[in-house]
Amino acid sequence: MLLWLRFGMDKKAVDRTIRQLRYGGVLRDMGAYVLAADRRFDIQLARAVDISLALSGSRAPDIFPRKKPVFLTAYLPEREVRLCVLYIPVGKERKRCLTLDSLRVENTMKTLYALLLDETGQAAALRAETPCLLAWPDENEKLELKKWEGIRNE
Q1: Any domain includes 32
Q2: Cα 94 from Cα 13, distance rounded (Å)
Q3: How many domains does the chain have?
Q4: Of the candidates 116, 102, 118, 103, which has an alpha carbon nearest to the alpha carbon of residue 146?
Q5: Which of 28, 50, 62, 154 is most open to solvent, judged by the fewest CB atoms within 10 Å of its CB?
Q6: Each residue's pLDDT tens digit, 13-39
Q7: Is residue 25 included in any domain, yes or no?
């Protein structure tokens, strides 16, 4: 119901998204509730799924099981692009930027990268060459999305 209200997805698309998250071991059923598989609520995972849903349009994204170092991978059918979300905790900006640039070099598919930050101030510490989206929670915990062109080495 919340996916329909927030993203305008129809019931079939919502059911499909929930089913994919279950299959990937992210969610499990418990009566009328759907919980994280490990019984803990992971706010960063919820935010990563939010990013995929916000970019997916009216068709549900195909969400794939987690494969490190990528935090969440999804295929966005309306955009015909793969989305890779990398979570960057405070203090890990340099390491994750190196990871992002190496993923881009190795990649052969049309891919949109998103960096999920804990706070907006982390953007100043980013040193990746790869253009991507930046996402961070505002003071009301709503995700802000911003296009970022990356840093060009001279």
Answers
A1: no
A2: 37
A3: 1
A4: 116
A5: 154
A6: 767 777 777 766 666 655 444 445 555
A7: no
Cβ atoms < 10 Å from Cβ of 36: 15
106-131 residues labelled b (16+ CB within 10 A) or e (exposed): eeeeebbbbbbbbeeebeeebebebe
Residue 96: band (very low, low, confident or very high) from pLDDT cuts 50, 70, 90: very high
CA separation for the pair 138, 117 (Å, rounded): 11
**Separation CA 135–CA 50 (nearest Å):** 10
Q: Which amino acid is at 44?
A: Q
pLDDT of 81 strictly over 80: yes
- Residue 19 forms part of a structural domain: no
E strand or H helix at 83: strand 81-88
Contact 123, 134 (CB under 8 A): yes
